[in-house]
Design a protein that fits this description.
The structure is a homotrimer. The first copy, chain A, has a domain at about 1-195: Immunoglobulin-like. In chain A, the strands form 6 sheets. In chain A, strands 3, 13, 14, 16, 18, 19, 20 and 22 form an 8-stranded mixed beta sheet that branches. In chain A, strands 4, 5, 6, 8 and 10 form a 5-stranded mixed beta sheet that branches. The first copy, chain A, contains 5 helices and 26 strands. Chain A is mostly beta strands and about 425 residues long. In chain A, about 10% of the residues lie in helices and about 35% in strands. Chains in contact: A-B, A-C, B-C. At the A-C interface, α2 and β19 of A face β20, β21, β23, α3 and α4 of C.
Chain lengths: ~425, ~425, ~425
Amino acid sequence: MVSRRSFLSNTAGALVTAGVISRVNAQSVPEAPLMGSAATQPPPMPTTGRPFKPVVTLNGWSLPWRMQGDVKEFHLVAEPVEREVAPGMTAHLWGYNGQSPGPTIECVEGDRVRIFVTNKLPEITTVHWHGVHVPNGMDGVAGLTQPPIKPGDTWVYEFDMQRAGTFMYHPHADGMVQFAMGMMGTIIVHPEDLAMHEVDRDFVFLLNAYDIEPGSYTPRVSTMTDFNLWTFNSRAFPGISPMVVRQGDRVRIRVGNLTMTNHPIHLHGHSFEVTGTDGGWVPETARWPEATIDIGVGQMRAIEFIADAPGDWAFHCHKTHHAMNAMAHDVPTSIGVDFEEAAVKLRRLIPEYMVMGDRGMAEMTEMKMELPENTLPMMAGDGPHGSIGMGGMFTTFKVRVEQPPDDYSDPGWYEPPAGSTAHRQDSES
Amino acid sequence: MVSRRSFLSNTAGALVTAGVISRVNAQSVPEAPLMGSAATQPPPMPTTGRPFKPVVTLNGWSLPWRMQGDVKEFHLVAEPVEREVAPGMTAHLWGYNGQSPGPTIECVEGDRVRIFVTNKLPEITTVHWHGVHVPNGMDGVAGLTQPPIKPGDTWVYEFDMQRAGTFMYHPHADGMVQFAMGMMGTIIVHPEDLAMHEVDRDFVFLLNAYDIEPGSYTPRVSTMTDFNLWTFNSRAFPGISPMVVRQGDRVRIRVGNLTMTNHPIHLHGHSFEVTGTDGGWVPETARWPEATIDIGVGQMRAIEFIADAPGDWAFHCHKTHHAMNAMAHDVPTSIGVDFEEAAVKLRRLIPEYMVMGDRGMAEMTEMKMELPENTLPMMAGDGPHGSIGMGGMFTTFKVRVEQPPDDYSDPGWYEPPAGSTAHRQDSES
Amino acid sequence: MVSRRSFLSNTAGALVTAGVISRVNAQSVPEAPLMGSAATQPPPMPTTGRPFKPVVTLNGWSLPWRMQGDVKEFHLVAEPVEREVAPGMTAHLWGYNGQSPGPTIECVEGDRVRIFVTNKLPEITTVHWHGVHVPNGMDGVAGLTQPPIKPGDTWVYEFDMQRAGTFMYHPHADGMVQFAMGMMGTIIVHPEDLAMHEVDRDFVFLLNAYDIEPGSYTPRVSTMTDFNLWTFNSRAFPGISPMVVRQGDRVRIRVGNLTMTNHPIHLHGHSFEVTGTDGGWVPETARWPEATIDIGVGQMRAIEFIADAPGDWAFHCHKTHHAMNAMAHDVPTSIGVDFEEAAVKLRRLIPEYMVMGDRGMAEMTEMKMELPENTLPMMAGDGPHGSIGMGGMFTTFKVRVEQPPDDYSDPGWYEPPAGSTAHRQDSES
């Protein structure tokens, strides 16, 4: 799924104009792998640099690197992308290296990293390393800590990953537009001591939201509250991978929020604790059990628990409109228009007219409504007992009793790293 | 207030079609008590099963049960209801057993419960036991863990209440519509050890929100953010019971949020700690003092404190629009229309025209405006010093110095359970 | 900047009608200082009463008092004010003593305070001392604990400041309007023991939001969610003072939220802990590190950290629309109108038309658009590396290596109190 592309030719000039030539040799720019798929990629074991237990990025992938002496070099390319939100709908977003969100950057506490950022957008950008303690000049705030990266230019960030934890990267230039277009990614800094904060399964994803008019492809970037597409890593149910674990596994799920509102993430069948934020790890004395964790904008929450209850459990944002796809609230639907217009008129004539007493919306999951092109049904997804009737920020957390099989036909069914036979992503490129 | 109704005749057929006949004998379906009042019901002491100290459900009641061997049997009926939101306004909602929210289900840690759910709605439903650790097949997620319950059918849930705490129940089928219509209730699992987490007064209610156009009765179900009726247990001030305690009482107030936004609940005159969530109890080392607790959607928070300051204290959501009734923000009012239209015009002519410098809205509490039918005034409620001028999510917390009297004319003035002479609800049915 | 005004003549009559004459002699009403500037005022060291280390109120000031025996007397005047939101825009608000927010009230744990409140608004008001434990009759809830203060009247509140901490004051009468107009202020109660909770730098401000149509001056008071001006202490970037500290300083920033939504406040370059709320101090066992703290409405959060990373760091609300000025989301802009209208039409003809792929909004910071009168640019602010392109709830946190100079040309560059040569505010009046 990963393809290799070289920036040696087409970025050499850019590097000069970007003024980074003094800090790095043009010929040393690493390749920028490109991901063509929105499927969850099996986590690759590191073959260079220090060892770590990789995370599973939900409907995402981790960015390969190359070692240049003791420095880990990554190459992010900010660019327009086509992201499949779920089968049947593709969004025209801005992202990194072919997808939105961008690839997960994984490294180890103490690593020195050098991250090349090439701007293939039609406007300026920067990258801010949210939560990472970096020197001021590396903080990526346009105007304040650096000039913006112009279209065509490549900028180099270089710093030490001082602390283990979960962080984010995103632009700090024209933020309203660039967030609304999907520019964001996750940074995982693994502890140097492999036994520290060790879990059996480790998932990560970001919360994002879009306002894409049914029938169109590109988000409206000026929307403040009335988004109609609520997503995990720019994917909507039923397009989101399940998270699959074995009974008894200690599980961590890391979730960052880069939307415009809080998202209360609810797990069925289990209680959990918040064990980490984008500020660091939560001491044990400060933890308490939750069934639903409300994640504020710009926050990252790592939750942990023992997956002791076998079965397929719902995992979703508890705001009902956020677990639906478009046409649920603001955009009129064929049934909704009739419904509301008729109801208003009827209520004036017969105030006690009970609209909802007549129908409801569940039948919509059964109907075959004619949808606009490139539009997901409001409620979708089939389970073992019929229609699940959800959308948006919803997926399943599957606790299986048996040892997982060796094939990876189930996209969320990954071997634990110790016994991993997963091919490395960069070996495919 | 509780009336008895039998489902032996009209549900026997339904039970067959629901396919639950193999798990329970049709003749064993317990009666489904029906509540006709929106007043707070005195908490009944349990006369069967293990002892516990009941909670006071604000403007609600607890569901009677029957013991069938060692199993506690409850019967919920999902159905359209008429809920008095406050004197002068009734909403046509969906709820359980005659009211919205449904009755509180109270039991004891370790209890095995069997809960019959009869669907008298015009569409499918299910019941999810939010926060309760149940076997996967009992989790109530339509399509994923069970087929939906069809109109007319009765479904049986059976599981152990493994952990003491505060939980919720609500549908997990057509959730957007069914939440917007008021389908929800509270579950209290009392500790087996009566001394554990013991308090003198224990209140519980849910936060809910509706969009009911002034002059009509039924919520608009497609609203995502612009609700106009913000309620505690589907009641708006001045229709909400006060909470009355004695000075020195240790008080617990348990609040769950099933709206579409956060509600910061503020108590005057006291600081408090969060001692429990829908995930479990908060260890003492993890607690801290608050004056306002922000409750995310799908979260439950139990707060505790000593009521040491005598007097009548405000207790409310701190979002100002949520402590008002309809017509406050989006729906034009007779004064509002003039006000805004004139203001816009005047501002164009005279930019420095200071609209609010002329009046404000406090005078509206004094005016006798002609309101549409079935509509509450935006600001209402009389206190000892005149108009309180509030609405929505607002009530009072009354700390009294004297021993409470034996009569219950004040709906919130309940004897503590030890000396209770309150009649049991099920003896009335 | 502070001017003296006497209420002896013009309030004596009011005092009689307010019925407070029995509790205080008319001639004893203290002067009500008036602030004419929106600049951050250097913190004055107390010269009467017990010693404390004053806070810096961001773009604000602390209210001088006078000692009357052992009682600290303050005088707040609720009145229409003109507040400069940033150079180029002034809002017509309601506030206290010439500004919105009102002045910070500072005292010491155990102080007895007497606060005179004169109502020069066109409608009733009260003052509620949010988070402070006061006798019920002093709680300031109109109708419930006192009659409202009529226009022209003066009311006297008197109580003991029992606990150190950070609290707020605001009306509890016609709250929706009076919050929307900017009526609020901060209360700091310093510990009696100077070494308790001691920090090197201590900043405080409130979060507020307005809906002021571009070209006008007065907020629309009925807005529930669609505010267009998001501010720190009624100031928008680039009008907000920076916070300047020395490397190694222990810093506290206290932030209260009196808007209608959560604000996730994010600090670059540092992690921090919440050490206090409006309910009290957070025990050490209950603290954990954060990069972003989500502050609910009606909540106060004090955060603390060591400023160990030199440089200029961004400090802002992480909701992207809240770090922009008006015209960003709902109000059409000259570029936005064309953009959206054209985009909708083009998408119908050419569904894959990629609007944002063509431009973006960053170029707007470079353009010299013609703005309506009294309107801030959507994205503004110049840094050492060019346009910062932010607005609203954004400022900088500057960590300097050198000892600060003695001049105060930089408004945030204050001497620590120990070596302060700052003139006292009341000596200017």
